[in-house]
Amino acid sequence: MAKITTFTDPAMSILPILCYPDPRLHTVAKPVAKVDDRIRQLVQDMYATMYDAQGVGLAATQVNVHERVVVVDVSEGRDEPFALINPELLWASEETQLGEEGCLSVPGIYDGVERSTAIKVKALDENGNERIIEAEGFKAICIQHEMDHLMGKVFVEYLSPLKRNRIKTKLLKQQKQAERA
Ligand code: ZN
């Protein structure tokens, strides 16, 4: 995946990303009351943060803002970002797929998670317009992953307690080492 080099807009800032097992990742986000300039700025900053970290999606929860906002870009060219504000799942297929997932809040860890193959979501865009998004495959996985964050859920919670504890221990150790460095 090509690294994006186009976010030179000075109005965008890269926000710090919370790392698992930070308890703030389990905060349930509140609905956005009004899509205003503050939310538009948050969306721009989240795009910049997602591209900087070479991610395909980011939820506001991960940047310690507990409002229902996610951004996604699963395009090859890394140039088709979109925001989902107050996303609501309208439909999810019974058919599921097992995909390997990673998360910007769980660096270096990838594991299989079973999710619906296709979904239909209603959300507002950054202009406050309602849109219906139908997604399948990787895009559907990504949107489900990000919407989980807004409910305070991190993908490792789908894994066995044994695996989750190993991940927790490993990341805490890494975080301590990083603090010392
Ligand atoms: Zn994530």
Instruction: From the alpha carbons, calculate the radius of gyration and give it in angstroms.
Output: 16 Å
The count of DSSP E runs of length 2 or more, i.e. the number of strands, is 7
Q: In percent terms, what proportion of residues is strand?
A: 25-35%
Distance between the termini: 29 Å
Query: Helix count, per DSSP?
Result: 3
Helix/strand class: alpha+beta
Biggest sheet, open or closed, and with what strands and sense? Answer: 5 strands, antiparallel
What is the helix/strand order? HEEEEEEEHH
Low-confidence stretches: 1-5
Write the layout of secondary structure elements.
Layout: H1 37-52, E1 57-59, E2 69-72, E3 82-92, E4 96-103, E5 106-116, E6 118-124, E7 130-136, H2 137-150, H3 161-180
Antiparallel strand pairs: 1-2, 2-3, 3-6, 4-5, 6-7
This protein binds zinc ion (ZN).
Zinc ion binds at residues 103-105, 145, 149.
